[in-house]
């Protein structure tokens, strides 16, 4: 399997015209700013429109409500995360193409995106009250698990007994580690993330070829 051929997380339909795409990105950036300044609970379409400098009526041309804005924000940042993971795995030196190397590179890629997208931390890691966001996260974890298992299998690192559901369990555990690591620290608890890497690696190495 070529890492570059992996289909990234699907994103919502975006406008085809450049001007409209810029306006949508402006809405998402405005939503991120509101979340960082006031929290997810303070997010309203009126406040998003005010920060983005767009009339509320114009915002509704792209999003039905604030829930759709939140989901689109998560979709955008998840897509960026997928790209980071694929890029970092493709750049792994041959000697690091091990189970430990793959787990470490993947979780480090997640950290890079969390560092760049602090609003993503607030929306996704600290308060998954939006059912659509929570479900998107579960679906995303399943796609990540499938990609990583196929990559490791192609390298001959794992036995066939390591199935997609088993890798999905490992990804879900890693996801929970990030929730705990970023629960109280805006930059995350790197020592806790390192422990999570060790824990997930130890679990997956039980299925090493």
UniProtKB/TrEMBL annotation:
It holds the Pfam family TetR_C_15. GO terms for molecular function: DNA-binding transcription factor activity; transcription cis-regulatory region binding. Signal peptide: none annotated. The keyword Transcription regulation applies. Gene3D superfamilies: Tetracycline Repressor, domain 2. Keywords: DNA-binding, Transcription, Transcription regulation. This is Regulatory protein, tetR family.
